[in-house]
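Open question from group meeting: does this chain pack into something compact, or does most of it stay loose? Before anyone orders reagents, we agreed to write out a predicted structure and look at it together. Recording both the input and the output here so the notebook holds the full record.
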Amino acid sequence: MQKRNLYKKTGMFLMLILIITFINPSSAGAGISDTDVSVIESDGQITLQWQDPDNSFFARVKITGAGKTVYVEKGVQQAVFADLINGIEYSFRLSIISDTGVILDETVVFGIPRDETPPGPVSNAYGIPDDGCVLLKWNDPVDNDLDRIRITGPNGVIDVDKGVERLLIDGLDNGTEYRFVITALDTSGNESEGVEITSVPEAGIRIHLSGPVAVKSGQSFSVTMDVYASRTDIYAIQAVLEYDADYFQYLCYDGPENITVVRVDDNSEGSVRIFVAGNGVPITGQGIRMITLNFKAENAMENYTGCFRLERALAGTAPPGEQIPVASNSINITISRITLPEVSDVIVLPGNSAISLAWIDPPGNEYDRILVIVNETDSYIVAKGQQSITIPDLINGEVYQFVLKTMDSDGNTSQGITITGIPGILGDVNYDGVINAGDLAIAAYNYMTQAGDPEWEQARHCDVTGKNGKPDGIVDILDIIFIAKKILEQP
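Structure tokens returned:
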């Protein structure tokens, strides 16, 4: 009896050992803590990579971090966490999970997403030379994480805070050409492409053009001409401003207070010739307004960048009465195509020799009408808010294409919504001019076909009604009944 109990206890002990080993098998093979986890940091993203542990019970890796938990099956050995915030440290707990759900081992790693996207370059960079110095000007890029602007020149490297957009470099030699490279830096230290400009300091005169970087189609804007002169014998200036007349329209000019505009000649398309003179005093100083020219951007179907530049700029000196050349710059102005909202929920209602269109106008005040184009030839204007139109005099059975575009008061239009329709007697789905069993058969054949199905294009003509009396995007019993009633109504 005692021997039997001993065998029984020994068996229970061995079974307990087996159960413990099954439940907690971490002793078999290496865990993830024995394996390196690579943390790859990139822009808004952290990638974790590892070697699966040599453990026969291992099934998957559980990763908890960045506000979520993911499971990675055995053999994948990688997980990517995206849409993270740059500069913030994230922790990730990697747990080795067995096929029975037991956590065999775990480790914690850390990573910080790094912004690797450089900011855009500065724009409209130029130098205004003067006696022994150059005034650098530019427009900052629009990056939200812009930190500073770096200028590399003959005096070394100078950093300027964002928003300043100018730097005076002095102590230069007149007549010597100097090279400057302007670079934008973001808060992560990424550098933009450098913009290089050259300038020659001299005791002379320069006209600086300035204007907006971008305008919208149909928008009016101004281009200003400012004089930078260290000489005190300049009493008259003439210059020709050239521009692209296909995209920009000259309107008029505004004269300055202390300079007389003698003449402005715009008879030649694409150029404006300007003559100004001082009112008994020399035209001297920094940033003296010479004239303001007003333009209007034409309607552009696509974005277009045009150049404004000064040609044949000369200054007259007194008393000797000599003509000297005037330095100047050019500027680029981009016409941005106006983006208008689109109509939605367009419904095509076929009729006898006609098609009715209904839609929902988009919200907003950017537009005031709807343009409906039929087969790229005929067009109709629908007032905002009307939201429907009937196109008459169509041929039953023919396919017509309709494009609906929103339009503003300047004639700008949206890209448009395109839809097709076939006029015909409602219920005459084979367009033979009569509703009979043939139409009923076609509808029955396409029964329960709905919008989005591969066969919808051939079946959509059978969708003649719905619960609200209008087509509802499915060929169902309501359409079958409608066609059957039409057959019975015929003499």
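Observations to bring back to the group:
The longest strand covers residues 304-317.
DSSP finds four helices and 33 strands in the chain.
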